[in-house]
């Protein structure tokens, strides 16, 4: 048996005879450099649309980023985004109560809705049309084409019942499927008398779904007689609360001729919003509801204005 050194020499000679360079075998060198570690920190940008109005309800413009403070769960957050008269895209679900108690003058109601769509919809916006009575129907899926929406308004079908909370719930679901890029604002516009008469979704389920979608709920409440002591106001109060919680608003309408001014007010609200954004701090539970509070830095100014915005969001929602 040849010694190891002789075996290595034989390999070297053989390689030289074949015209190849001898094979060198060296011990692997230990690297003195530390491995590079890449840290991934997941952050979520939370956008909050904000309406600022004075004591008469008129929009207050000209405010700056430094005029506001925003808190999540009571902790002050640094504003990363600030826009005045936000031009961010809109995704809108227009849901129309098709029960007999609401559709009293179809021509006026449809004309008002058509004018609203024409006045509000821009190239970057989209609208989904639903009606609801015994059930909820999506007549026109999200589109930017006013002609498709106008055609859909002519396909509204009357019914007997009012699946109000189902409509809010399903509208929230549809909005969650839209892109959240570019600070897109999500909106639900309801035309209804406020009475839910279908055993489907409950108020709390409808509210949660709207909040998970980050949707502002605007309600045009059709009432037969404004001071009628016998009418059921439970549904109206629910719509008022859901508007307050989501940063939307509600309007009462007694006469179908007043629908157009109500739509115009919603359009004005959406065109005069500020947009505030911040990066959400990490939490142990991503499924919990996080509260949002916005206030003016100047306490004197706080007394002169009313701030409307969504009161919170779910950490695991889109």
Structural description of this entry:
The structure is a single chain. The protein has 318 residues and is α/β, with parallel strands linked by helices. It has a domain at 90-271: Rossmann fold (3-Layer(aba) Sandwich). It contains 8 helices and 14 strands. The strands form 3 sheets. Strands 7-6-5-8-9-10 form a 6-stranded mixed β-sheet, with helices on both faces. It has a 4-stranded antiparallel β-sheet with strand order 4-11-1-13, with no helix packed on it. It has a 4-stranded antiparallel β-sheet with strand order 3-2-12-14. A hairpin with a 2-residue loop joins strand 2 and strand 3. Helix 4 (164-176) packs parallel to helix 5 (203-212) and helix 5 packs parallel to helix 6 (234-246).
Terminal CA distance: 74 Å
Order of helices and strands: HEEEEEHEEHHEHEHEHEEHEE
Mean pLDDT across every amino acid position: 85
Fold-level CATH name of the domain at 90-271: Rossmann fold
Helix content: 25-40%
The major pleated sheet works out as: 6 strands, mixed
Give me the secondary-structure category. alpha/beta
Radius of gyration equals 30 Å
Q: What form results from the Cα inertia axes?
A: globular
Widest beta sheet: strand line-up: 7-6-5-8-9-10
Please name the fourth-level CATH homologous superfamily of the domain at 90-271. von Willebrand factor, type A domain
Total count of strands = 14
Uncertain ranges: 1-25
Can you tell me the CATH class of the domain at 90-271?
Answer: Alpha Beta
Q: Which CATH architecture of the domain at 90-271? A: 3-Layer(aba) Sandwich
The number of helices is 8
Percent of residues in beta strands?
Answer: 25-35%
């Amino acid at each position: 048996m040849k010694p190891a050194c002789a075996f290595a020499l034989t390999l070297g000679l053989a390689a030289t005879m074949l015209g190849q360079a001898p094979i060198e075998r060296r011990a692997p060198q230990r690297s003195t450099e530390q491995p590079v570690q890449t840290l991934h920190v997941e952050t979520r940008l939370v956008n909050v649309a904000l309406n600022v109005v004075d004591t008469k309800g008129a929009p207050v413009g000209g405010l700056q980023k430094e005029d506001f403070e925003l808190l999540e769960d009571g902790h002050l957050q640094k504003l990363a985004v600030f826009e005045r008269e936000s031009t961010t895209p809109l995704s809108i679900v227009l849901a129309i109560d098709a029960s007999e108690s609401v559709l009293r003058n179809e021509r006026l109601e449809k004309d008002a809705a058509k004018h609203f769509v024409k006045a509000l919809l821009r190239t970057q916006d989209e609208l989904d049309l639903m009606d609801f009575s015994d059930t909820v129907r999506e007549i026109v899926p999200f589109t930017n084409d006013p002609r498709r929406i106008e055609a859909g308004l002519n396909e509204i079908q009357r019914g007997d019942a009012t699946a109000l909370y189902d409509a809010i719930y399903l509208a929230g679901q549809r909005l969650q499927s839209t892109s959240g890029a570019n600070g897109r604002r999500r909106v639900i516009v309801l035309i209804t008398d406020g009475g839910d008469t279908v055993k489907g979704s409950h108020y709390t389920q409808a509210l949660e779904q709207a909040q998970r979608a980050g949707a502002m709920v605007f309600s045009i409440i059709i009432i037969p007689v404004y001071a009628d002591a016998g009418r059921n106001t439970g549904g109206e109060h629910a719509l008022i609360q859901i508007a307050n919680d989501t940063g939307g608003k509600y309007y009462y309408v007694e006469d179908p001729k007043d629908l157009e001014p109500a739509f115009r007010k919603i359009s004005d609200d959406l065109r005069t919003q500020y947009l505030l954004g911040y990066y959400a701090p990490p939490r142990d539970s991503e499924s919990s509801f996080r509260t949002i509070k916005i206030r003016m830095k100047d306490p004197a100014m706080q007394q002169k204005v009313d701030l409307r915005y969504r009161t919170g969001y779910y950490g695991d929602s889109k």
